[in-house]
Write a structure and sequence with these properties.
The chain has 15 helices and no strands. It is mainly alpha-helical and 306 residues long.
Length: 306
């Protein structure tokens, strides 16, 4: 597959990953009676279990190249992309709202693109200036509804903002390290790497269960637990298994500076799902933001074609 074919297909995979990942912004609203720690534990237990089952027939081939260094890398990637990221994100959504969390996570393309521009062979940052400007405009518009006109200071909102920043930093580091590992291991399929990450994440999530139960003193009904199990399973299959799989395939097709742009689709879809959840149409500033998202990606694509 040549480069001209890889870039459009990579962008499509990035859009699909963003559509699947955007659902995790709504999950904390669907299960507000559970903590972010519980949501992370439930989601990643299912993710680990499904990954373990899918790895069984593939294990004889995988064990021939797996080394201790690979397992250490998978532990670090699992913590960054899953455990730390989603605990922080779910808490940010519950304490600060979907729009505020989406606003902060919307800075991911800027962070990954700026850092990725230092990689060998990357498009110079000056050629991405216009694209990054549209991203900045989009982020300002996206957060306008959430950050403007707040009546009084709320410590929970400030804490939610801090959690969103934590998620931003965690995922920025993950996106760069994961892309480098995928390029370093061309013999490993993106699907297998995702399943191995899921296996390690599932093992790490076992450590979350005692803390998740200790910090929640509320009593939940059988119906609430059933809803919690369904939400956890949905996030594990659609966001973790399918979403991560599309993202890993995209990471091999696109340079790091363009990978950074693709993360903005997660913010876009999170907002669309938020509008559906609130049963309203986007405000004028939100329409502008979505237009800027599209323009930023088109301009970034043009810079890479040049």
């Amino acid at each position: 597959m040549d480069g001209r074919t890889q870039i459009p297909l990579g962008i499509l995979f990035g859009m699909i990953a963003g559509a699947l990942w955007g659902t995790v912004f709504i999950a904390p609203e669907l299960a507000r009676d559970f903590t972010g720690l519980q949501l992370a534990a439930g989601r990643y237990l299912v993710y680990g279990a499904v990954s373990a089952v899918l790895l069984i027939p593939r294990w004889p081939a995988l064990r021939t190249w797996l080394e201790p260094g690979h397992w250490r890398a998978l532990v670090g990637l699992s913590l960054l992309a899953n455990i730390v990221y989603y605990i922080a994100l779910a808490t940010a959504v519950q304490w600060g709202g979907v729009a505020m969390a989406s606003l902060v996570i919307g800075f991911l393309p800027v962070a990954v693109t700026v850092v990725g521009s230092r990689a060998q062979g990357a498009v110079p940052l000056r050629r991405l200036a216009t694209s990054l400007l549209f991203i900045a405009v989009a982020i300002v518009c996206i957060g306008w509804q959430a950050l403007a006109g707040e009546g009084s200071f709320e410590w929970r909102r400030l804490a939610g903002f801090a959690c969103a920043v934590t998620a931003l930093v965690s995922w920025t580091i993950y996106a760069l390290r994961n892309a480098r590992w995928l390029h370093r291991l061309p013999q490993v399929s993106a699907h297998d790497w995702n399943l191995l990450t899921g296996l390690v994440t599932g093992a790490l999530s076992l450590l979350l269960i005692p803390a998740a139960m200790y910090f929640d003193s509320r009593t939940h009904s059988a119906g609430a637990w059933t809803r919690f199990a369904a939400i956890s399973a949905g996030m594990a299959v659609f966001a973790s298994i399918l979403g991560n799989g599309f993202w890993n395939r995209m990471s091999r097709m696109l340079p790091l500076t363009l990978v950074g742009q693709m993360i903005l689709f997660e913010t876009l879809f999170a907002l669309l799902y938020g509008f559906a959840w609130e049963a309203r149409l986007p405000a004028p500033t939100e329409w502008v933001a979505m237009a800027c998202v599209g323009l930023s990606v088109v301009l970034c694509l043009h810079a890479h074609r040049r």
